[in-house]
Amino acid sequence: MELGLIGLGKMGGNMRERIRRAGHTVVGYDRNPDLADVSSLKDLVAALPAPRVVWVMVPAGGPTQDTVDELGELLEPGDIVVDGGNSRWTDDEKHGAELAAKGIGFVDCGVSGGVWGLQNGYALMYGGKDEDIARVQPIFDALKPEGEFGAVHAGKIGAGHFAKMVHNGIEYAMMQAYAEGWELLEAVDSVTDVREVFRSWQEGTVIRSWLLDLAVNALDADEHLDKLKGYAADSGEGRWTVEAAIDNAVPLPAITASLFARFASRQDDSPQMKMIAALRNQFGGHAVENK
Questions:
Q1: Nearest 5°: phi and psi at 223?
Q2: Label partner for 74 (CA 20 to 30 A): which of 63, 95, 138, 276?
Q3: Top-confidence range, 81-85, 227-231, 282-286
Q4: Model pLDDT for residues 212-249, shown as the tens digit of each residue
């Protein structure tokens, strides 16, 4: 299969490589010419045989809207656009309607895997019409982890990014729990090796997880996280999760509290936020602020 891929940063670049390793052809475009295969979106579209599939991996909001608008002018009826960024699900509904008016299909796809996705595969949550999903399926199969699980057709347009949003909300709460436990262990005199306590939890306990493994990796690199500033950003999806909970009258006390804890990190050098920052850097390559 031939695919156009727009946005070749940390995620997009590794996704291009994983898709190529699966035997597909990828024509990539990025504003950084050192990363791009072609020099413009027009050249990308021209390089693909019709009917085309173009996957967008650019920041949510304005950049995604601008890219979808430009593709809407360049693509033809029967082509498909996949938004694999972290767009809000309500934007998906808008983009789907805009492109449908021109006969162009639209699929939204939440992608999880961070900087480890090239090696381990990406968990995929996608939304759209059955016929559009079927067209993109070979790419989904190339990106997903090996085995039976790791990808799901979550529903209609917007469902993929809604599912990914909830995933990230859960991620917020899990990271916050690890961070709070780590701070409490560090606070008492009786526990003399907090890092090894965390390491001991990696086998045989009910709280073992990949996030716990990444926490141990972070502590191996900086045992007391002394090099980090206690500041952690929020990507926006935590906020959207809480807003959706309010709209649907669904109580989310743990996820909401974890979001507010990140806000608190902007007021003080929070020890908990050192662990959150370290975990985000470990799984997603997100920037940290050093002292």
A1: -55, -40
A2: 138
A3: 81-85
A4: 999 999 999 999 999 998 888 887 889 999 999 999 99
Rounded Cα gap, residues 54 and 287, in angstroms: 28
| For residue 51, cis peptide bond before it (omega within 30 degrees of 0) | yes
Contact 120, 172 (CB under 8 A): no
What pLDDT digit, counting tens, does each position of 15-48 carry?
A: 999 999 999 999 999 999 999 999 999 999 999 9
Amino acid residing at 43 = D
Choosing from 171, 183, 237, 274, the catalytic residue is 171
> Smallest Cα–Cα separation from 207: which of 187, 189, 182?
182
What does the pLDDT read at residue 38? 97
**Within 13 Å and on the Cβ side, how many CA atoms surround 168?**
29
Q: What is the pTM of this model?
A: 0.87
Could you give phi then psi for residue 124, rounded to 5 degrees? -125, 135
CA atoms of 284 and 168, how far apart (whole Å): 12
Judged on CB neighbours under 10 Å (0-12, 13-18, 19+), 32 is exposed
2 is catalytic: no
Determine whether 243 is an active site residue. no
pLDDT at residue 268, as a whole number? 65
Task: Judge contact between 225 and 219, C-beta under 8 A.
Answer: yes
Give the whole-angstrom CA distance, residue 123 versus residue 140: 9
Domains defined along the chain, listed by start: 2-157 (3.40.50.720), 165-284 (1.10.1040.10)
